[in-house]
Design a protein that fits this description.
4-stranded mixed sheet; alpha/beta; 375 residues; GMP Synthetase, Chain A, domain 3; 12 helices
Length: 375
């Protein structure tokens, strides 16, 4: 993998904060988001950059102009597509400020090459969010949100908010690259789709929704995960995360919130197969309920919440590890830290070992005595 090439922060600040005229700023495309699509003859790169025509300078702010401009260019390589973009829009491209990189479904098959480019060229932001589109990246970037300094700010908020409620595991550039360089070369990226729901927050009434996750391996886009699968992955990989879920108790809907989650993973080898004993603990409270007296049913709700946690964790492991040999939960790190000897025994054919691995999962959410609310 190519080495990181980063402009020191102080140099970047100097470059952006120097005395520049309004005309000079208009000659620079300060990129907020990048979309990469794979085509039969190369790549299509879509850039969303801040529209300096709306931000004053020598004239007053023109709020009638869109807050972001979206342009696309084609080329045999990503570099040549960017060159075509610079020529067609008449601006110098500054992609180092991009906060989001979206890959079209077809581009995911060359994900490592694209990530290496993003890190090694044009001072790519190693903490940029990475996502995959159900269709093309240009579909996502052509949705124009009307709030925020740039449209992409809303997309970043969607990813962060989904993590806050346990529906997604946002990945940034350097994390995704590290996962793809791991023994099984696999990662999970948030999966985005355009929805025509008449949203008032966009210029054309459509919006972007988070629909689950995309398992990406060295072989490309491999599988789709549901939002429930993504919450299971989040509980496996992020200690302290929150997760909302619905359970049915005595035929009544109960909404619960898990928080302070923690997964303990103990690997072993038995009968020539990898075994993982996984215990998930969490605090739990009922946030809404159709039960006449939720407190009387707290033990039953606690047990049902534990069953749902186990189901979600097992689902994501079966879809990734057992089906694809994909280590999306970083299990190799758990094996190495637990027993270097065990890792030596399985590392030579680790992907095959994952496809036959057994997972024993138990979950023990502890219900709060207070905080129960009627819905």
């Amino acid at each position: 993998m190519k080495k990181f090439v980063m402009i020191p922060l102080i140099a970047l600040i100097a470059a952006l904060s120097g005395c520049r005229s309004h005309a000079e700023l208009n000659e620079i495309a300060i990129v907020e988001a990048i979309g990469i699509d794979r085509t039969d003859d190369g790549y299509t790169v879509t850039l969303q950059y801040f529209n300096t025509d709306t931000s004053g300078g020598t004239t007053a702010i023109d709020s009638s102009q869109p807050n972001a401009v979206t342009v696309s260019g084609k080329g045999e390589t990503i570099e040549s597509a960017l060159e075509a973009l610079s020529y067609s829009c008449g601006k110098s491209i500054m992609p180092g400020s991009a906060g989001l990189i979206v890959f079209g479904r077809d581009a995911a098959r060359d994900l490592m090459d694209s990530l290496s480019f993003a890190m090694a060229h044009y001072s790519g932001n190693p903490r940029a969010y990475i996502a995959v589109s159900e269709t093309t990246a240009s579909d996502i970037l052509n949705v124009k949100f009307s709030e925020g300094n740039a449209s992409v700010e809303k997309l970043e908020s969607i990813l962060r908010n989904a993590e806050d409620i346990g529906l997604s595991c946002p990945q940034v550039l350097h994390q995704a690259a590290e996962m793809l360089c791991a023994p099984t070369g696999s990662t999970v990226l948030p999966l985005l789709a355009v929805s025509e729901n008449g949203s008032e927050l966009t210029e054309e009434g459509n919006t972007v929704q988070l629909t689950g996750g995309a398992v990406c391996t060295a072989d490309g886009y491999a599988a789709t995960l549901t939002p429930e699968d993504m919450s299971g992955l989040l509980m496996l990989t992020r200690d302290g995360c929150k997760c909302e879920m619905t359970v049915i108790c005595r035929g009544k809907t109960v909404r619960v919130m898990l928080y302070g989650t923690k997964a303990r993973i103990t690997p072993s080898l038995a009968g020539g197969k990898l075994n993982f004993d996984i215990t998930v603990s969490a605090d739990c409270k009922i946030v809404s309920s159709q039960l006449p007296d939720p407190y009387e049913e707290r033990n039953a709700v606690e047990r049902l919440a534990g069953d749902e946690v186990s189901r979600r964790v097992l689902s994501v492991l079966r879809k990734s590890a057992n089906s694809l040999g994909a280590d999306v939960a970083g299990l190799s790190y758990k094996i190495r830290s637990h027993s270097p000897a065990l890792w030596n025994a399985v590392s030579a054919d680790y992907r095959a070992c994952l496809t036959e691995a057994r997972f024993n999962i138990s979950a023990h959410p502890e219900m709060e005595r207070f905080g129960i609310m009627h819905g």
